[in-house]
Amino acid sequence: MSLRFPLFLASFALLACGEGSGAYQPAGTVLPTVAEADAALAATVATEDGVEGTVPILHGFVDGEPQRYWPMPNSIATPQRVAVLCRETDGECALLDHPLVFEHLPGEPGFSAFGKVTEVQVSGSYAGEILGSWDAVEDAAADGLATLSERNAYLNCPIVAPDATVETADGGTRGPRPVYVRDMRAECMLFGAGTGRLGLGELGTTEGEVLIRNVYVLTRDGEDAPLSEAMAMVDLTGDGDMVDSNNVFGVGLDSVEYTPLWRMVTVTVPSDYASIDTAMDQTMADYRDAHDMFDVDAATYAITPIAGRVVAYEETDALINCPLVP
């Protein structure tokens, strides 16, 4: 891969001289899969990963334009640690061909689809050793094979069963990528902020959590079901699928505030509101931008409803992991 992280020189690990005998393993070591190591644990992952079959691409709006997105599970704002191995090259840390290293699997305390990045910058002493666990990462640092730099950067990589797939923008499917967890090989479905991006950028909060923005789910006054085919279980546009909605995302991929983690804001709109079901067209609706419904504070993202456009609304506690499709 040619992806690169900026080089961060500050580290929180002390270097030690000489060879060590830490939890890392010789180059070429093949770690067992979760299923090979613990069949019951693999069954738990398959049950708790929240993915059944292929995750479809759904349709909504952002910034006045149609926008596609993936509805992913495990929407917890507190990330787990993830180690990313790299080597200094021309003042940057170029990613190595070594799987990401996580701590927790689905169903375990501390699991999150999101990982807070620790950059593992290998030294000249590193000879391709396998760092299959966080113990191995820390031992490698103690033995002088690497320095560790914690970054305010995040990955969206839900750990899933090996047979999980997601729909791709061209109508195909793709599977997960290998990662290491406690000296086992697992799989995670990686989503970047855009094509070719591994991470989500500097998207943390002062509390160490993933940034959250709003997604607006609309329902007409007097109706019970939201204007979302997947939620209402109705083909609103008559096009033979169940992927269209009038969901409106608060920020787009080109925003520095982009995040895949969204707080659901339920919005009751006037009874005569024209949506995708009125036009029978997934690209047409009265509201296709957050600013069509709310005044949005540029600094705090606090929302104030626009008179006549919103009957009622609620900023719920529900968080959803919906990475936007580039």
Order of helices and strands: EHHEEEEEEEHEEEEEEEHEEHEEE
Helix count from the secondary structure assignment: 5
* Unreliable sequence segments: 1-19, 193-198
Largest sheet: 9 strands, mixed
β-strand percent reads 25-35%
Proportion of helical residues = under 10%
Distance between the termini: 19 Å
Shape, please? elongated
The Rg value, from CA coordinates, equals 22 Å
Structural class assignment: mainly beta
How many β-strands, per DSSP?
20
Query: What is the averaged pLDDT score?
Result: 89
How many domains, in number, for the residues?
2
Topology:
Layout: E1 4-6, H1 34-37, H2 39-48, E2 54-55, E3 58-62, E4 65-69, E5 80-89, E6 92-95, E7 100-102, E8 114-122, H3 134-142, E9 146-156, E10 159-160, E11 165-167, E12 173-174, E13 177-181, E14 184-188, E15 213-220, H4 229-232, E16 248-249, E17 261-269, H5 276-279, E18 294-296, E19 303-305, E20 312-321
Parallel strand pairs: 2-11, 3-16, 5-8, 7-13, 15-17
Antiparallel strand pairs: 1-6, 3-4, 5-6, 5-7, 8-9, 10-14, 11-12, 13-14, 15-16, 17-20, 18-19
